[in-house]
Amino acid sequence: MIKPILKDLIITGNPNIHGKLQFTETEDIGDDFYLSGTACIGTEDSEGEDNFDFTIITPKALEAELKDGTNVVLGMRHFIVNKLDFELITETIKQILTQHQGETWEEIAKDLAPYFRWEYTDSIRLNSEEELWEMIKKHSDNDI
């Protein structure tokens, strides 16, 4: 059974608004922000990690989104928080990961989809060199 673990957490925002690009700890940036998060997730027995992206938004920023002409904000992959609390976000991600173990990494990534967008979500998996050549030929024929 593969057990995913959080290896790193990257939170970024607009430097023109927040004065910097990346946040590395809990900070008081108010109660009106919309940030990007990346959970770097791997396993204990590997050095590698994959990126799983999500949004961090406050109720105030969410309300502003709706006032700016957006009628619906879909909640998938959004962490709605009252303040930027690195420890709380880290613990929440760790709790999610303990509930999602699997036989394959792809199975785990699929199970994490409601919370995060896996960096390989839209990738095409090829199982052989033959499949690669078939795909190249198919696309070459379409370009003619």
Secondary-structure blueprint of this entry?
Elements lengths: L3 E9 L2 H4 L3 E2 L10 E10 L5 E9 L1 H9 L10 E3 L5 H13 L6 H7 L5 E2 L10 H15 L1
Parallel strand pairs: 4-5
Antiparallel strand pairs: 1-2, 1-3, 3-4, 4-6
Unreliable residue stretches: none
Order of helices and strands: EHEEEHEHHEH
Tell me what portion of residues adopts beta-strand conformation: 15-25%
Overall geometric form: globular
What value does the average pLDDT take? 88
Major sheet: size, sense and barrel closure?
Answer: 6 strands, mixed
Radius of gyration, taken over Cα atoms and rounded to an integer in Å? 19 Å
Q: Provide the helix percentage.
A: 25-40%
| Derived structural class | alpha+beta
How many structural domains are formed by the residues? 1
The total of beta strands comes to 6
What is the number of helical segments per DSSP (H or I, 4+ residues)?
5
Distance, first to last CA? 47 Å
What does this structure look like?
- The protein has 144 residues and is α+β, with helices and mostly antiparallel strands.
- It has one domain.
- 33% of the residues lie in helices and 24% in strands.
- The chain is built from 5 helices and 6 strands.
- Strands 1, 2, 3, 4, 5 and 6 form a 6-stranded mixed beta sheet that branches.
- A hairpin with a 5-residue loop joins strand 3 and strand 4 (49-57).
- The longest helix is centred in the last third of the chain and has 15 residues, at 129-143.
- The chain is globular and about 55 Å long.
- The mean pLDDT is 88.
